[in-house]
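This week, look over our next protein:
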Amino acid sequence: MNSKIPKNAHEQAYGEAKSRLFNRIITVSFVICALIGLAQLIFANYTELLSTVLILTAIALSGLLHRKGYSDIAYGVIPLIGFSTLFYMVVAQGSKYEAFLLMFPAAIIYMFIFYSNRLVLVAYFLLSIILQCVLVYFNAGYNEVAFKDQMLAEYMNVLVLNLLTFLMCYFFVSNLKKSKLELDMAVDYVGKQKMELVRRNEELDRYIASNKQLTSYTDLAAHELKAPLRSVQGFAQILERKLSPKIEKSDQELFEIITTNTKKMSALLDDLRKLGKVDKTEIKVEVFGFDELMDEIKQDRRDDIDDRNAEVKHIGEVDQINGQRNLLKQLFSNLIGNAVKFVEADKQPVVHVDSEYQEDGQFFQIMDNGIGISEEDRGRVFQIFTRLHSESEYEGSGIGLALCKKIVDLHKGTITLGESELGGSNFMINLPDLEDANEKTDLKS
């Protein structure tokens, strides 16, 4: 059988290892036999020298067969040489070599290394038992010793020793094959997982690319829609002024609906443009005072705060923060604005901004006493266009919290939502320390 072409990578590696081991066995056997032949030549032991020469010839032939690619045949020549030579020397020449019996267990181990076919292994095992029994018989002197109890004991010893060797080798090889099968299955599983990971990475790359295109398209679409929207609003106002002396109160309400909805649409487009700009932002890190930022936000939100008589205050220890100032201002302004807005009409809004320094940055909590958000809804409030209440109850585009999440992601931070000790919502933000002031860092999510 020609075993030059292995079935797979594992068999190829195993075949190469067997080939290297066989070459070493050939080399060692040839050197030892050559030394024995030299000693026989020096001491003029020509009878046994002939056997040694035949063995050397057979070893050389075995090496040649292996080199030509007939590995399985070459592997079998070595034990057959040993068996035949020993049989000839004991049976034909009448020599006594009891120590050679120790070679047979080694031959069994050899066969398990180089062969995997069970029939071949069993055939060599039976041949080994038969040869050993014959050698024991001739070593004991068949003319002098009949079939006695001692001879039976010798045969039993041969059988037990070889059987134990065979079973131990079989047990070891069987477990080795089982382990190899499990390893192959694990490698196959890892390979499939790797392929799946590559596929998902490709999908993620496509998703990121399409998301970037969608973001750019959203920004462009919002920009382009602003102009016709302004035209609609302007022409509606002109038409209202021209027809005001002639129209009834019910018609006047229609113009108010047009004005209200165009303002809502304009606000929605503004929020979409902000979201699109945030996605394309390259962070410019600045260091600035947090209390100063809070004062600006309260000044910008003064109308809403005064209208609801809201209490907004910073009660934390953070006095400086680093990041892109305009984005962080938008983040805290949106959260404070929501905290003021989402409160029952007959209740004074209370908003506490708590802050503290941590090892890797700052931690903020924006707590309010508003209507709160149920636990089952907290996981989706940061998704774009998510509204938990009707527009008639609370105004909004459903983009504000999605925008907050984008800003926090750009700053490599986290934002989560919990329950406030004031009775409403608690937005918790971790912002890590970024690079020094004025150093640009690309932190796109």
In short: The chain has eleven helices and nine strands. The domain at 282-441 is CATH 3.30.565.10 (Heat Shock Protein 90).
